[in-house]
Design brief:
Layout (H helix, E strand, L loop, with lengths): L2 H8 L3 H8 L7 H10 L4 H4 L7
Length: 53
């Protein structure tokens, strides 16, 4: 799936998908759930929690 296709499926801009993918932006819970649903995966399979050390 391309970033453009994912953006369309999720209902956000291509720039939003790009910034999420590169780690420059943290998505809202709704957007994160929509992304996981677009891939038919659980939220934990798509996103991981990274804590600052």
């Amino acid at each position: 799936m391309t970033q453009a296709e994912l953006a369309l499926a999720v209902g956000v801009s291509l720039k939003t998908i790009n910034t999420i993918e590169t780690g420059k932006f943290i998505p809202s819970r709704i957007t994160a759930l929509r992304i996981a649903r677009a891939f038919d995966l659980g939220l934990e399979q798509v996103f991981e929690l990274v804590l600052n050390e």
